[in-house]
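User: Hey, my collaborator sent me this sequence without any context and asked if I could get a structure. I don't really work with proteins. Can you help?
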Amino acid sequence: MSSNISIPHRLPLLVVSGGVLLPGSSMRIPVNTPRNMNMVKSRILRHNTLSSTIIGVVPKDPESVKDDLSSLHPIGTAAVVVQVTGTNWPKPAYSLLVTGLCRFGLESIVQESPYPVAVVNQLDKLPGEDNGMFSDLSTYTD
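Assistant: No problem. I've predicted the 3D structure and written it out in structure-token form, which is a compact way to encode the shape of the chain:
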């Protein structure tokens, strides 16, 4: 039995440099930019729903010196936040453990501040789609 499984069409983006998250793999990501810190504080720490833990992890062009969204790679990975670790003293510092779900293409950036949000297009199936392991994740969007 096959079900129609999809990620939300709009995802908050966690911009990373120095690594690529692949579907099915896990990765610990330090949160060290103001944009990523805003996303963690307002999206992940303040909400405890499934939709708030599904984010887009997008690599930034490592050769770009600009800190804008024009240097984002056009393909990212939808991920679920498994764990948040960190401290608020002497200054906030967080680290996220994420697990990749599937790849997506960036269609457009619909919000840049306080953190980026993009309209995305799912490129491949989620794990467990063929055996009905997951329900339709798009029903959990805000």
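In plain terms: The chain has a mean pLDDT of 85. You can pass these tokens on to your collaborator as they are.
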